[in-house]
Specification:
The protein is α+β, with helices and mostly antiparallel strands. The chain is built from 4 helices and 4 strands, in the order βαβαααββ. The protein has a 4-stranded antiparallel beta sheet. The chain is elongated.
Length: 120
């Protein structure tokens, strides 16, 4: 299966269970892998045979910057469902949401969730 990869998308959002996370916000990084058949797009050089990267980016951006969730699990789920609903070409999506500034005592690079969903 072919894949579209969206790596290291960075946004500022207001997700978390703590009040400060909801009001002050923080950075989030999103990585997305989309399984789809890209053969016809490659053979024909026709955008209609694939999915617009700009549209995919906008879906992720809207979920992170315009919506609010307590859990990054819910954020990842909404991103995955919105992406799958965008096009029947998309067979499977893997969404990873990183929270590099999670309010946790200690030294860490980030906390993250990774989910995988398939087209129904």
């Amino acid at each position: 299966m072919d894949q579209i990869l969206m790596k290291g998308l960075q946004f500022y959002g207001y997700h978390g269970v703590m009040e400060a996370e909801k009001t002050l916000g923080q950075k989030f990084t999103v990585h997305v892998t989309l399984d789809c058949d890209l053969k016809q797009a490659g053979l024909t050089d026709d955008l209609r045979k694939t999915v617009s990267y700009a549209v995919l980016y906008s879906i992720v951006e809207t979920n992170v910057t315009k919506k609010k969730f307590d859990l990054i699990e819910a954020l990842a789920e909404n991103i995955a469902m919105d992406l799958l609903n965008e096009s029947a070409l998309l067979r499977r999506v893997i969404v990873e949401v990183e929270k590099p500034e999670a309010p946790v005592q200690g030294i860490f690079k980030s906390f993250a969730v990774r989910i995988e969903r398939v087209q129904q």
